[in-house]
Each structure stands twice: as C-alpha cells, then as structure tokens.
Amino acid sequence: MATRNPAQEDHQARSDFVRELVQRSGVHDAVPAAYSTKPPRTIVQFWDDLEQLPGDVRECIESWKKLGDQGFEVLLFDNDSARDFIARRLGPRYESAYVKCYHPAMRSDYFRLCYILIEGGCYLDADDVYHGSAIEHLFNDGRLRIQPLCYDISTNQMVPPSVFTELGANASTWIFYFNNNPLIAVNGHPIVKRALAKATEALERPTAGELPEIQSTTGPGNLTKSIFDLATEQGEIERALLVLCDWEDIAINKWSLSYRHDARNWRLSNQREYQG
Prior knowledge:
Shape: globular
Strand content: 5-15%
Helix content: 25-40%
Strand order of the largest sheet: 2-1-3-9
Order of helices and strands: HEHEHHHEEEEEHEEHHHEEH
Number of strands: 11
Oligomer: single chain
Distance between the termini: 47 Å
CATH class: Alpha Beta
Number of helices: 10
CATH architecture: Alpha-Beta Complex
CATH topology: Spore Coat Polysaccharide Biosynthesis Protein SpsA, Chain A
Structural class: alpha/beta
Number of domains: 1
C-alpha cells in the first residue's frame, strides 16, 4: 500500500482545511468586536522599478485610479520606497529580510505584509485590472479579506471559483489555498502578523546555497500555512477573516502581459538568481 510522507500529509490537511472554510463561507457574518475598526480606504500597489514599468502593467495600475474620486487613497511603491517604509516603520531586522528577497515578486509579497500590518488598507497586485464595481463594502470592518484559489495538478490549470466554491466540490487532484492578493485588513491583524513573522524567519534561515521557494516563503503558501497554523492553535479562525469567493466580479488578474515571458515572471525565476 502506498504511503504518504509527513510533508504530503501536511499539504493535504491544509488543502482540506481551506476547502471546508471556503465552502462554508458566510456562516459567521457577525463582526466580532475585535474587528469593528474599519481599515483605511487605501489602495497600495508595488512595482520594483517604476522607470521600467511596462505599458500594459501601467494600464492595469491606472484602472484603479478612478477610486481616487471616491475617497480612496491610491499609492504605488517601488523597491526603494518600499525598503524605506520597512526600515522606518519596522526596523533593521525586517529591512534585512526584505533585502534577502531575491525576486521582485518576493519583495512585493514581503512588502504587502509589512504595509498592511502597520497601516492597514488594501494591497493589490499591479497586474490586477479593476472592473469598476463598488468596493466600499470591503472596508466595513477590520477582518482579513482574502481570495480563495484552487489548482488542478492533473490539468495544470486553475479551477473556476464558480466550480470549487460549491458545497461538496472536490477532486483528489485539486489543491485549495488562499491568495495573498487582495490583502485587505485593519492594521495589526493577527493573521498578517503571523504571516510576516513566518516569512521573516524563513528568510533569515540558512539555505546552504539554495534560494528559498518564493510561494511558500513569502507568498500564498506562507499565508495559507499561517492561517492553518493559527486555526490549529486557537481552534477557530473564521471570525478573523472573510473569504472573497466573488473577487473576480471586482477585478481579474491579467495574464497576457509582456513581463510574464521573461525573468520578471516569478514562475520562470523561482529559486534562481534574478537577472532583471
């Protein structure tokens, strides 16, 4: 009989946990007093080198500018301004961890955790395109709002939310996890705090000459594990977050972008020296 190693068991347990959480989302609609504070109406994005910002990515970023007319502050950071923010607000330990992020996507992952922990608000990837739908309701309370994802390893494709969010939907080849885009929360949120702590520890860990894997170190894998670990320790996590099963009604990640064909695409640069 085939056996599974502990790492496989751990990944499966996390996937099952996310699936159950996603498919019963909305059960806890009441806002706990601890999360009654609203996050600031701030949209934060990052692009490593703004002097080399591709035109098609600029169009994605520009799609969010209209929110400035609705009382939102829209901010765009680059590598230098993100590092400066981390150094000023969190100190040398976190600045050093940021510097160890060897790829722009990794720095983006790490910076968003730092920013949302300190300031709160909404972090969005620079390649997300805004449809124009209302988003004010996403800022009604301080719970962490995150998007669920599901990947089918048999087809190497994402499973549509309309399919994987249905109660009971599952397959042995599906991997359920949480995206770190968008990341919406009040400042000081415990899940964001845990995710930043774990990312920092991972970046500080000796690697014996091997670069750390991006997704599990600073990205969605790290966020998903942080949520799972907190739920395991505390026995309940649902009141601290809100699963956005309909995020694609608000924005969609644009895939047909020029940078995805070169080293700026983290999937082509994972665990490799970045030549940007």
